[in-house]
Fold Volume-regulated anion channel subunit LRRC8E.
Amino acid sequence: MIPVAEFKHFSEQQPAFKLLKPWWDVLAEYLTVAMLMIGVFGCTLQVTQDKIICLPSHEPWENLSETPCQQLLLQGVPKQMGGLHEVSGLKNNLDLQQYSFINQLCYEKALHWYPKYFPYLVVIHTLIFMVCTSFWFKFPGTSSKIEHFTSILGKCFDSPWTTRALSEVSGENRKGHTTGQATMTMAAEAGPGKAGEGEKEKVLKEPEKVVTEPPAVTLLDKKEGEQAKALFEKVKKFRIHVEEGDILYTMYIRQTVLKVCKFFAILVYNLVYVEKISFVVACTVETSRFTGYASFCCNHTKAHLFSKLAFCYISFVCVYGITCLYTLYWLFHRPLKEYSFHSVREETGMNDIPDVKNDFAFMLHLIDQYDPLYSKRFAVFLSEVSESRLKQLNLNHEWTPEKLRQKLQHNAKGRLELALCMLPGLPDTIFELREVEALRLEAICDITFPPSLSQLVHLQELSLLHSPARLPFSLQIFLRDRLKVIRIKCEELREVPLWVFGLRGLEELHLEGLFPPELAQAATLESLRELKQLKVLSLRSNAGKVPASVTDVASHLQRLSLHNDGSRLLALNSLKKLVVLRELELVACGLERIPHAIFSLGALQELDLKDNHLRSIEEILSFQHCRKLVTLRLWHNQIAYVPEHVRKLRVLEQLYLSHNKLEALPPQLGMCSGLRLLDVTHNGLHSLPPELGLLQNLQHLALSYNALEALPDELFFCCKLRTLLLGHNHLSQLSPQVGNLRALSRLELKGNRLEALPEELGNCRGLKKEGLLVEDTLYEGLPTEVREKMEEE
């Protein structure tokens, strides 16, 4: 016998592929096995047993047919005579070899091809059916997608996250259903006259329902969470890849159509030729020269069995064909290239599960024929809400409260700050750190603050740097009077959340972002009227003018900072309305002259015009109207000279002129009697006016990175000088008069041409070794007693 197992490789698939085999494919597979057994059985009989047995006929060959052969055989049946009978027959005078020769010759010449090849045809047709059924599991273009899909599907089905997500949803649905029933019951019991009491009872009883009937949710460890996260990424990429084409759908239709055509062809020719399987066969061959006979009556020994097998085979083929026709009906009676998760969305409450198309949809339709539960559990990994929940869970695993507490530091304002950067989300564990006073979030996408934010009762400062955030209305009320400082950095200022402008307790607002090019000149900013306590406003953008909404806070704004990153600020008239402004920064605003609107700010105390294009500061005379101005920063510009009427600024205490193009200072600068700090580093000064010695209140003088060759002795009359920076000049000697600076605690002399230091440095009581910045050789050249004095603690 030929074992059927030899043919198994024609239909052998991976065990996981059974998920994509609906009931009709399973039935067809069993039918092909039955048909294959019929074919193998017939082939075995055909090979191992005699095929045909022939006897010579004494009838003339012209009259020979199957009917005379049958009559002749009937005549040879003996008649019963009592209990005895006489055996008689014709003697043919043929030996065994002649009979064998005639049997083989008549088998080839006289027997019809259908009974001759019937078992082989059954085997061949069955193998074709088997190949058609499993071809899409073997074809490279489809098998890779199927293998990938079944692998992902199995992991999604077994993932603990699937169970947890569905349990959470069912728990929420059960809680909502219970709450709804409780509400209806209490409303019915309360009656029209007790509606108020019913509402109170509802508020009291609802929390009990939530606490006493929590959903059973499995816990995920960190490893399981990472595996689920990887599954989400695989599902996303697989969906994009598979939805691009419909090769699986097309291949399945083609192989089904081929099976239907094959079914009709097999059925037709079998019904036509099955009657050719006959027990008696008339054979006429010209063998009289060898045997003495030319006509024979033959018996097809397996005709009776083959007729029964043919009947069974045709029956199986009919059932197989019906399954193929049903498959075609299933393929075309509804669109299988679209799959809707509508029922899953209603059942699970995950309304963001998307519908799919093409091959992805077709495979899910096949999965539903196997078990719809697979699609339901798989849908969890198509939901962005589910993915966000998983990310949140992984975040909570990674960022424990203990780990977050290690990141707590005091910021520049002394607040206890927690800074987080480039996280996939916001860990819920943050809100367990009740001591946090400042929260800094950078490069964290799509933040939605949960209600647990209200646990941060000490939160006063919030920084959102490239971290768009949504804030529920209840939390807006919570932060409205608590938050004092907020910093927002984004690509465009229109991305600033609107809830920011409703924080009426806000004292500092720092915004950084660009206006769209078409809106830059208008520079429209949201209304600031609700910010009743705002004192500091910082705006870093490309505004063409001072935003008009700044005037909404004119009555209480004390500090305004505009950083324009080089874009020219054209209109500054709005500044005139800031009557209580104390500090003003106009940095990198493309200013070529000092704006006249500034001179109207009578309360102004500090002005910073850093990194502009100022060449002349003749308008400095008008600063005498700013009677409270004590700090003037004109650094990082292109100023070539300081006008002599700088003497009018008698109340000025700090003057920054570093990084300009100054070559000399006016003698009138010595009349600024209130000056405590003068910074003229990084210029081209060759000498200093002796009048600087009149600055008796001067405490800090920075002259580094110039071209000074000598210092006037009058400079050392500034007896209150504590810091003197002379590094990187062309000084060849330091006057012994330096000993008059008894308060000096920091002296920089590096990068000069000094050959020795005056021993009078020992008279500077506050000067220690760490405060003297000079080359080691020069320091070693000081007298021993001077060095010992400087090294004393």
